[in-house]
Amino acid sequence: MKRIAIVGGGISGLSAAYRLEQHRRRGVPIDYVLFEADNRFGGSLRTERVDGCVVEAGPDSFLTEKPWAADLCRELGLGGELIGSKDSERKTYILVKGRLVPIPDGLMFMVPTRLLPMVFTSLFSWGTKLRMGLEWFHPPRQASGDETVAALVERHYGPEMVERLADPLLSGVYGGDAAQLSVRAVLRRFSDMEAKYGSLGRAMLAARRNMPQAAGARPPLFTSLKGGMQQLVEAILASLPPACLRPGIAVRQMRREGSGWIVSAREEQKFDAVVLATTATAAGALLRTVSRKLADELQGIGYSSSVTATLIYEERDVAGLPPGFGFLVPRSEGRRMLACTFVHNKFPHRAAVGRGILRCFLGGSRDEQILDWPEEAILGTVQKELKQILRLQAQPVAQRVYKWPRAMAQYAVGHLERLERIAALRRDIPGLALAGNGYEGIGVPDCIRSGTSAANQVVNGAEAALQTAPGLGS
């Protein structure tokens, strides 16, 4: 019987446990234990009911185009619970000099593909608009190495595009800084397009022409669950034997002994393999006595923190807000808020009858200190900025603050090369797998994929061949 320890009970560790359980049920002789330092599983996937509304503490959805989360939901019997964002309301604004300016049509992420909307938008100056026109004549450029997202975007469209679009978008997704994040790790497609076409605009249009035309309506951009993202956590836990779960038990140390591992939690236990589904920082600390080089590489991956504040209003008090999913705030605007989602527009069912929900984001790599603020100060700042930006005078009927310290991995320049070094060092340590958002994607689907892959990896030899069986692929 092969014994496997999973350290970390967020969605990555839960996905690893679920996949190991599927292997076990198919006859693979394995046993596993899932350790989680917190008293609850799920990490940032946490949902509350507040004043009849569905309130997400962490991620509220996942990208539909990444299949691993929706596939897992269907496998767990949650297919009927999947819902899409109301994309007919999908308009996003950028705060520019205190005014909300809609992102114009024809911008694919941050690449202009249509002329007239760019000409008439007030989001960009005429100098940037001229750069957009000239960008179509960029010659192909083969990058000699990695660079920041800001460097690539500025080369094509100028600094204003970085300030007003690239940086706010990446702050919203990664809690990071376009001047620090690796373009190869975060937007590898842009590097590839520049190498082949030169112009990102021409490359985007070519990609759109080559896309197969799907029959019927387009799938929604975002997918979630009717009762909130915690439904996924609860469904996984319901599929796992309670005897395998160790909530509230932190793993303090690990070491190699013979061909296996000694894991020290409340007591020492021996395992044949270990899946570390923690932050890369925590994984490095646990592996310090096993491989100093690997520990150093893992702890070289940075993390930023985030704060979400959800405010619930009377529906009539938010009826005058602009239509759309919400707005992004460039750093140059001098606000603490990074973004705000109009939840009642994005996922209307989440608001109780007669209610509207605003979800605000703060923190990120440039504002770590806000985690030290008391909740009252955070809510006061959010309400003040909502009043200034949206002219929202009303008081919320309910509100919640959630803090996520060092939760969002930052893929700095050289991240992919670091991953290659980590993979080479890990291969020299039998029975070790890594999972989480520190490696190849920070979204929920990416974490599910990494947990699944780690579980398959520690199931050895002939047993691992079961990966190709229906429902067991990574």
Briefly note the structural class of the backbone.
alpha+beta
CATH topology description of the largest domain = FAD/NAD(P)-binding domain
Q: What number of domains?
A: 3
**Helix content bin:** 25-40%
CATH level-two architecture of the largest domain = 3-Layer(bba) Sandwich
Tell me the major beta sheet. Answer: 7 strands, mixed
Uncertain spans: 461-474
Our count of helices gives 18
The dominant shape is: globular
CA gyration radius, whole angstroms: 23 Å
What's the number of extended β-strand segments?
22
Alpha-carbon distance between the termini?
23 Å
- The proportion of strand residues reads 15-25%
Task: Output the CATH homologous superfamily of the largest domain.
Answer: FAD/NAD(P)-binding domain
Q: Report strand order across the widest sheet.
A: 8-7-18-19-20-17-21
- In the CATH scheme, the class of the largest domain would be Alpha Beta
Overall mean pLDDT: 93
Q: How would you characterize this protein structure?
A:
The chain has 18 helices and 22 strands. By secondary structure, the protein is α+β, with helices and mostly antiparallel strands. It has three domains: 2-43 and 228-301 and 412-468, FAD/NAD(P)-binding domain; 105-210, protoporphyrinogen ix oxidase, domain 3, CATH 1.10.3110; 303-410, Polyamine Oxidase, Chain A, domain 2 (Alpha-Beta Complex), CATH 3.90.660.20. Strands 8-7-18-19-20-17-21 form a seven-stranded mixed beta sheet. A five-stranded parallel beta sheet has the order 12-2-1-16-22, with helices on one face. Strands 5-11-6 form a three-stranded antiparallel beta sheet, covered by helices on one side. Strand 1, helix 1 (11-25) and strand 2 (30-36) form a beta-alpha-beta unit. Helix 8 (188-197) crosses helix 9. The protein is globular and about 70 Å long.
